[in-house]
Design goal:
By secondary structure, the protein is of the alpha/beta class. It contains 8 helices and 13 strands. The radius of gyration is 18 Å and the shape is globular. Keywords: Methyltransferase, Transferase.
Length: 266
């Protein structure tokens, strides 16, 4: 596969992140095990009642969102490139007495490992930036959806990824729809900046036009594209906390979040 080096580097970094993230306040695994949901208001509102529905969670890390949907009654399958992430997810699935399934593979290869079709395909917060091209991604999503089923993504806005956050203050450095890979190497992770691990990562910026066009060309009907100032996560510098616990830029010069819902044609 093209980009093997980039995918292998990212896999190694995510494998190293798993134990650090599982032990972090950001993921708060102890509270999660006691029943706290990891889901945010955007995805909860968009997906509605998932009870009895089959759900495919793409790039699931170690499965917290997958389990949160399982607790709401969905029949869930999670996919992730990280061996360690899937190993921990499988362990937690037994510990929590849930019935989710997990598959370790590159998300672009999902249809080679999973033949089932789903009512919902879901992905969220920091996922498409790991993919060099969205056309095979969208094709896979269409393949895995039942006719009448829907895909939902809530993701950080592409404008936010135009900045280099390894310097302070951040500098606008990358293209809005940059085709070339962006390589970054930095200490720690977003969940524990004091960690001694070194994150080595390849990423790609995707415009909203690319997202919408890829999904449309794959046979999905776009229900909506929405953009928001408020992020549920404080992962960008100098954000202000709102009264409802979200985070925004003081200037509000550009949105931090977008969401898309798209339906598989019958």
């Amino acid at each position: 596969m093209k980009f093997n080096n980039e995918f292998d580097t990212n896999r190694e970094t995510w494998n190293a992140k798993v134990a650090i993230h599982a032990d972090s306040e950001f993921y708060d695994l102890a509270t999660f095990k006691k029943g706290k949901s990891s889901l945010n208001s955007y995805e909860l509102k968009a997906l509605g009642d998932v009870s009895g529905k089959s759900l495919l969670h793409l790039q699931c890390h170690f499965g917290q969102d997958t389990f949160s949907f399982s607790r709401l009654g969905a029949k869930c399958t999670g996919v992730d490139i990280s061996d360690e992430g899937i190993k921990l997810a499988t362990q937690l699935n037994g510990e929590l007495n849930l019935d989710a399934k997990f598959v370790c593979c590159n998300v672009l290869d999902t249809s080679q490992f999973i033949s089932e079709k789903f009512d919902i395909v879901f992905t969220s917060y920091g996922t498409i930036g790991w993919l060099p091209n969205l056309k095979p991604w969208a094709k896979m999503i269409s393949e895995r959806l039942k006719p009448g089923g829907f895909f939902y993504i809530v993701e950080f806005h592409p404008i936010a990824w135009m900045f280099d956050y390894t310097v302070s203050p951040p500098v606008m450095k990358y293209g809005y729809a940059q085709e070339e890979a962006i390589y970054e190497e930095y200490d720690g992770t977003y969940a524990n900046k004091d960690s001694k691990m070194i994150s080595k990562e390849y990423g790609w910026n995707h415009s909203l036009g690319e997202v919408i066009t890829a999904l449309s060309e794959a046979g999905l009907h776009i229900e909506y594209l929405r953009e928001y100032d408020a992020s549920p996560y404080y992962i960008f510098p100098e954000l202000l906390k709102t009264a409802d616990g979200m985070f925004e830029l003081q200037s509000k010069l550009y949105p931090l979040i977008f969401e898309v819902k798209a339906t598989k044609k019958t």
